[in-house]
Amino acid sequence: MNRREFLKQAALVSAGMLFCGKVNAARSEYFITDDCTGCEQCYDVCPHQAINDEDVPLKIDQDYCSHCGRCYEICPVGAIVKR
Ligand code: SF4
Ligand code: SF4
After folding, report:
1. Where are the chain's structural domains?
2. N or C: which end of the chain has fewer CB within 10 A?
3. Who contacts 43 (Cβ-Cβ below 8 Å, separation ≥6)?
4. Which of 28, 63, 25 is nearest to 51 (CA)?
């Protein structure tokens, strides 16, 4: 690889890292509010078992959440908010 090709590759890698950083920064976090009825539909669709159903309202463990939004989409009473 010559110097010109190397610089081109380096610029592409830098742009990619910048883009990924922006995507991560824009990623929403999901929270369950007191409007939760305990129906557990969010619990059933969560692909990472990130939702604790021991109490109502249920609780999302942010350490396991992948921010996919499935719980937010399925909640029948709009009890999940994203910030
Ligand atoms: S889907 Fe909504 S109402 Fe049902 S348990 Fe989850 S947050 Fe609560
Ligand atoms: S956003 Fe996705 S991973 Fe996070 S709690 Fe909801 S369903 Fe689970």
Report:
1. 3-82
2. C
3. 51, 53, 58
4. 63
Q: Which ligand is nearest to the CA of 30?
A: 2
Q: What is the pTM of this model?
A: 0.75
Ligand nearest to the CA of 32: 1
Task: Say if residues 57 and 33 touch (Cβ distance below 8 Å).
Answer: yes
List C-alpha distances in Å: 20 to 13, 25, 27: 11, 9, 11
Q: Hey, which bits of the chain come out as E strands?
A: 30-32, 51-52, 59-60, 80-82
| 65 and 50 Cβ atoms separated by less than 8 Å | yes
Per-residue pLDDT tens over the stretch 11-41: 555 555 545 444 444 689 999 999 999 999 9
CATH, domain range 3-82: 3.30.70.20
